[in-house]
Structure formats: structure tokens, C-alpha cells
Amino acid sequence: MPVLKGLVPIPTYRDQPATPASNLSGVDLSGAPVHIPVLGTATWTLLLFLSSGCHGCGDMWEELADPVGAGLATDEGVVAVTHGPAYEDVAALGQLAPTPVAGTELVVMADEAWSAYRVQGPPFFVLVDGTADRVVTEGVAWGVSQVAEHIRSARQFQGPG
Description:
Elements: E1 24-27, E2 33-36, E3 44-49, H1 58-63, E4 77-82, H2 90-96, E5 107-109, H3 111-116, E6 124-129, E7 134-140, H4 144-158
Parallel strand pairs: 3-4, 4-5
Antiparallel strand pairs: 1-2, 3-6, 6-7
């Protein structure tokens, strides 16, 4: 077996990210079209790529109700991104997803986002700096505390949004 000591799996911090940032377009849980701007904003956005059938996504779904309390956000927007209705159990998503706060969309079903952000499978996270239109960090979401730590590190390394 090869020695893996010293190797860094994603997430990585990059000056020139391999994954370009892009806005999100898809549908909400009722099937209505949704567009979520990620680029050209004055904020950072945390994208959590989750699924209704993902056993490792459970704690992420639970913490979406209070992402600040979970350490997933300070002032970042947080959006759960799932595959579209053809690939998801929409009724199960309705049970997993927290009730959206007025004027915000917490879940968007968007197949194109999975391709655009090069996500191979859930749970996965991407932190986008909308002020610079770039991905700051990304990786497999091994747990809420791990994602929260990467966000804190990215904020320290990159500075406030």
C-alpha cells in the first residue's frame, strides 16, 4: 500500500481554482424555476451538494435549519444543491429540507450545477467568494465540523468577503 502521509486530499486552497464558479439555476421543491446568484454578489456562498438517498448527508440536512449555529456560516449564504426531480425523491427532500426563511431558497434541484462544479457525489461542499467570483475551497463533506473548519480556514486564509 502506498504511503499517503503528507498528501492533502481535497479540499485545497488555490490561487487559481480548477473549478470555475457559476450561478445556480434549477427548480425548488415545488417545481418552480429558481435562479440563485453566486457570482457578482457582495457575499460568499456555501453550496452543499446533498441527496435524498445519501446516508452520509443526514447531519448536513439537519444543520441547514441553523447553519450559523452549526458553524457552517458566519454571513455566507447556504444552499443545498440536489440533482433534479428525475433523480431525486422530491417527497423525501421535502421532509429533509428545513423550512425556508422568507426571501431565501435553501434547496435548489439543479443537475447542471453538479456538472459545472464537477461534483462526483454527495456529500460535497463548495465555498464561493461572490466578491471575487471564484471558488475558495471545496471538498468531500465528511461531517459538519470538518466543513465548518474548512470554512474558518478559508476565511482566515482569504480574508473577509
